[in-house]
User: Which sequence fits this backbone?
């Protein structure tokens, strides 16, 4: 939270409602405020609403209040059930947002949920983009997220300035649901990469190698990756403070395995990592950062944690 005076909203910019102010939503909404947008937010936790107002935003007492006058409604909540809960029903977004508003769902949910939401919103005159992100908490804070978008080209073009205040790589991937499909692929790659890094860490340590030196040199070669760069300190210090929780990545691995089954794509390695993620959660580590896959490898290698 900044103690500096919040910048004034710039004339001509759309009024934004933001629903969901968690680990990702709070810094993302603050970046919009910094970029000169008028942001009204709603979430269930009072401390998150206090953080928003301290950053220069406006706290609403309900979803209906937040979205009533908004040109753009952005949602960032954990999963499909939450997206459905805030979108439908008499107190939800679709019943209370004005006709012509643009609803941008930046949650990571099933492609089918996004397609259904777009259809339901169209009946109310509300346009929808699915726009999940990758980059974790650090990417949200630094406004360097990758944003993968599904929906209509005209709506994407209209939303581009908003996206540019939040991320660096912004791509329209196809029709409704395409953004979520690409996000599922992203989560598959990230999970497999973390698992490979975790196995390497245990192998290196058991071999008596200087772990920091090893990870430094690996990071500079073909084995280098954004995952290794971002998670290296987590591995070195066994710091699993959540940037992206195991619980959420477990949910995402369910999305990708279900979606792959539906289209007939085999994910042999992904299926194994999905099971390892599920086991980690069952062992009580669901609230930790997903780099805690290292703990599963340590357990399998004989460590008592």
Assistant:
């Amino acid at each position: 939270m900044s103690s500096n005076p919040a910048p004034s909203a710039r004339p001509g910019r759309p009024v934004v409602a933001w629903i969901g102010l968690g680990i990702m939503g709070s810094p993302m909404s603050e970046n919009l405020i910094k970029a000169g947008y008028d942001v009204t937010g709603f979430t269930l936790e009072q401390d998150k609403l206090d953080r928003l107002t301290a950053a220069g935003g406006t706290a609403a007492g309900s979803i209906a209040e937040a979205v009533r006058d908004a040109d753009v409604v952005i949602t960032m909540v954990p999963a499909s059930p939450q997206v459905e809960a805030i979108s439908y029903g008499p107190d939800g977004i679709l019943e209370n947002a004005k006709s012509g508003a643009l609803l941008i769902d930046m949650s990571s949910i099933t492609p089918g949920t996004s397609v259904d939401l777009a259809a339901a919103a169209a009946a109310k005159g509300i346009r929808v983009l699915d726009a999940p992100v990758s980059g974790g908490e650090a990417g949200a804070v630094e406004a360097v997220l990758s944003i993968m978008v599904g929906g209509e080209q005209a709506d994407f073009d209209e939303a581009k300035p908003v996206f540019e205040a939040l991320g660096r790589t912004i791509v329209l991937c196809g029709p409704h649901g395409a953004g979520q499909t690409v996000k599922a692929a992203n989560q598959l790659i990230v999970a497999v990469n973390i698992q490979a890094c975790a196995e390497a860490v245990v192998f290196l340590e058991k071999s008596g190698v200087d772990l920091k030196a090893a990870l430094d040199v690996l990071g500079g070669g073909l084995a280098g990756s954004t995952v290794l760069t971002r998670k290296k300190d987590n591995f070195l210090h066994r710091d699993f403070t959540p940037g992206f929780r195991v619980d959420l990545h477990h949910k995402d691995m369910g999305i990708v395995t279900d979606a792959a089954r539906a289209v007939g794509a085999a994910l042999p390695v992904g299926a194994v990592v999905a099971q390892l993620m599920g086991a980690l959660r069952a062992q009580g580590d669901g609230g930790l950062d997903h780099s805690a896959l290292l703990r599963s490898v340590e357990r399998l290698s004989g460590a008592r944690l």
Residues 1-6 have pLDDT under 50 and may be disordered. The first strand starts at residue 16 and ends at 19. The longest helix spans residues 178-206. The CA atoms of residues 149 and 172 lie 5 Å apart.
